[in-house]
TrEMBL record, chain A:
The chain crosses the membrane at residues 20-39, 258-283, 303-326, 338-366. It holds the Pfam family MacB_PCD. The lineage of its organism: Bacteria, Pseudomonadati, Pseudomonadota, Alphaproteobacteria, Hyphomicrobiales. It is a multi-pass membrane protein. It comes from Mycoplana rhizolycopersici. This is ABC transporter permease.
Automatic annotation (TrEMBL), chain B:
Residues 9-233 form the ABC transporter domain. CDD domains: ABC_MJ0796_LolCDE_FtsE. This is ABC transporter ATP-binding protein. PANTHER family: ABC TRANSPORTER ATP-BINDING PROTEIN, IMPORT ATP-BINDING PROTEIN. The lineage of its organism: Bacteria, Pseudomonadati, Pseudomonadota, Alphaproteobacteria, Hyphomicrobiales. Keywords: ATP-binding, Nucleotide-binding, Transport. Belongs to the ABC transporter superfamily.
Length: 380, 233
């Protein structure tokens, strides 16, 4: 037997109570694991690059930028390559089945962030065969059940065609995977030339330029230079990293991370109160035995460690089960929901388990530590 | 065996009082006692005479208000709580009336408890546990839990736990108070063996005159003072 075995055996003295405690901890950490995975992977923000810069209108994402700005941006010596994108939003079949299309130059896109999107020369070659070809992200393809060669029609919300219609017809030329599970692949890539030629309004404009800085150039400093360049123009710009851009985009609707953190934080505080309450009673029931251990020579610090070890054990098992279930759920859900259970999520969860385990054991442990032996023996 | 002449346990001018209902109730008002190494002393007396208080002070779980209390080379009256814990872990074993085994631990684990405080390997701890279980006649009972054992067997486990770390002093608080005569005699035979063969110094508080017969001498405590001493024939 070891000291840890003793803590473990103490924890299992009332198996039903311990199991219920572990279940409640497991549920809390399952929720935490899922929400943290959601935040981590939401809309590809986690997988988004800090180096890649997006240049949009300072007036908002809905304000287009003239294509002419591309050459001015490219002229900055810190810029390696400039791509551009026009975003279309629309639906397939029913209005709630919303999809997004990024209309870009496939070759430039390949150069700027082909690695992040998982683009290959074969895919770029495939989309180049015909003006209405598109590449579809793996997440979107799986969610819609689309396959290569299939024709799809997207009814645009805000980009009418020259012929007055809003239906855009495409043929799927390939499926891109994304660099990792955290990469947003819930959209399709169309050819800018086709979309620009066919749309009724705002021709020769883009929603954003995508800039890759040269090696050794600070993205932050380059972003500031680009914005300065257009500060007094008709279309002032706002340049952010791809990650900042996506996070800011999400915050347009609500600070999801803050809300989730508040909800999960409240759940953890409630859990802490419950476990402290149960542990105080559990240890109080054992006051006599605490006195016995002290009589055998267990010091106050060992008693403290024993009870903290017990609560840590309960949290470690319960939390471990919850996190394992969360991991399974993220694997089972696949990339469609954008859940990414990363090493960072795991490390943070382990830190929370440790803190909660110690915090919930602190009060009963201090009580037990301070109880005089004589007083403990009077409890039987 | 030969007892040392020099006192192993020495209590000089011990004073102890408890506050009960706002009033100080004196238990000892200058108690003196010396016990040589290797002695086996039974302490008898009516309830409230101070037997348990004496035992608690010898165990270092209670402190005198005044006076000197030394065991071996240690001055228990001057030690803080941490030092007394360490002293108990290395110098003293205690046997309780109601055995006080931990119900979630099996016999071997209960016996092993004091060894967790010593720098021993797992194998060394196991060997020591096996040895003392053999000594108390419970070899083969390692995996049994207290609830499956008779009172006599539980008390023998309690004795094994008290001696597993090889302390010089064994304190027994009514060790036969919860046992039938046959089991009580077995336990007392064991205590006598530990005293005679393993040279443990034993102080046993008891109400049972038959139990006291196993000791080398019996001290009668009344109203906080020793009133009579009998030596075994």
């Amino acid at each position: 037997m070891t000291f840890l075995d003793l803590a473990r055996k103490n924890a299992w003295r009332m198996p039903l109570r311990t199991v219920l405690l572990m279940v409640s901890i497991a549920v809390a950490f399952l929720i935490y694991g899922l929400t943290a995975s959601f935040i981590n992977g939401a809309q590809g923000a986690a997988g988004a690059s800090d180096d890649l810069l997006g240049v949009t209108s300072a007036g908002g994402r809905t304000q287009p930028l003239p294509m002419a700005a591309k050459s001015r941006i490219a002229a900055d010596p810190g810029v390696a390559v400039v791509g551009y994108v026009k975003r279309l939003r629309g639906f397939v079949d029913v209005e709630r089945n919303v999809v997004a299309i990024s209309a870009a130059d496939p070759d430039l896109l390949m150069t700027v962030n082909g690695k992040e999107l998982g683009l290959t020369p074969a895919l770029v070659g495939a989309i180049g065969q015909s003006h209405d070809k598109v590449l579809v992200g793996r997440a979107l393809a799986e969610a819609q059940g689309w396959t290569v060669g299939q024709r799809v029609t997207v009814t645009a919300f805000d980009t009418p065609r020259e012929d007055g219609g809003r239906d855009w017809r495409f043929e799927i030329a390939g499926i891109f995977e994304g660099e990792s599970a955290a990469t947003d692949s819930y959209f399709m890539i169309a050819r800018y030339g086709y979309v620009n030629a066919a749309r009724a309004r705002a021709k020769d404009t883009v929603d954003a330029f995508v800039v890759r800085p040269r090696a050794g150039v600070s993205p932050g400093e380059l972003a500031a230079r680009i914005d300065t360049l257009f500060a007094n123009s008709a279309t002032p710009t706002r340049t952010q990293s791809e990650k900042q851009f996506l996070e800011a985009f999400l915050r347009q609707y609500a600070d999801i991370e803050l809300i989730v953190n508040l909800v999960v934080g409240a759940a953890f505080v409630t859990l802490l109160m419950i476990v402290v309450n149960i542990m105080v009673f559990a240890v109080r029931e054992r006051t006599f035995e605490i006195g016995l251990l002290k009589t055998l020579g267990f010091s106050r610090l060992r008693i403290l460690a024993l009870i903290l070890g017990e609560t840590l054990f309960v949290f470690a098992v319960g939390g471990g089960i919850g996190l394992a279930l969360a991991k399974l759920a993220t694997v089972a859900a696949g990339p469609v929901l954008g859940l990414v259970f990363s090493a960072a999520v795991l490390a943070k969860a382990i830190a929370i388990i440790t803190v909660l385990g110690l915090a919930s054991g602190a009060l009963p442990a201090f009580n037990a530590m301070r109880t005089p032996i004589i007083k403990a023996f009077r409890t039987r | 065996m030969i007892q040392d002449i020099a006192p192993y346990i020495a209590l000089i001018g011990i004073r102890k009082a408890y506050r009960i209902g706002g009033e100080m109730m004196p238990i000892f008002s200058g108690l003196d006692l010396t016990i040589p190494r290797g002695d086996f002393v039974a302490v008898m007396g009516p309830s409230g005479s101070g037997k348990s208080t004496l035992l608690n002070m010898l165990a270092g779980i209670d402190r005198p208000d005044a006076g000197t209390l030394s065991i071996g080379t240690s001055r228990l009256d001057q030690m803080g709580e941490a030092a007394r814990s360490a002293w108990r872990a290395h110098n003293m074993g205690i046997v309780f009336q109601f055995y006080n085994l931990l119900p979630m631990l099996n016999a071997a684990e209960n016996v092993e408890l004091p060894l967790l405080l010593k720098p021993l390997s797992r194998k060394e701890r196991r060997l020591r546990v096996e040895r003392v279980l053999d000594l108390v006649g419970l070899s083969g009972w390692e995996k049994q839990y207290p609830a499956m054992m008779s009172g006599g067997q539980q008390q023998r486990i309690g004795i094994a736990r008290a001696i597993v770390s090889d302390p010089g002093l064994l304190l027994c608080d009514e060790p036969t108070g919860d046992l039938d005569r046959k089991s009580a005699d077995e336990v007392l035979d064991m205590l006598r063996f530990l005293n005679r063969e393993l040279e443990k110094t034993i102080v046993m508080v008891t109400h049972d005159p038959q139990a006291a017969l196993y000791a080398r001498r019996t001290l009668h405590l009344d109203k906080g003072d020793f009133v009579e001493e009998k030596r075994a024939a």
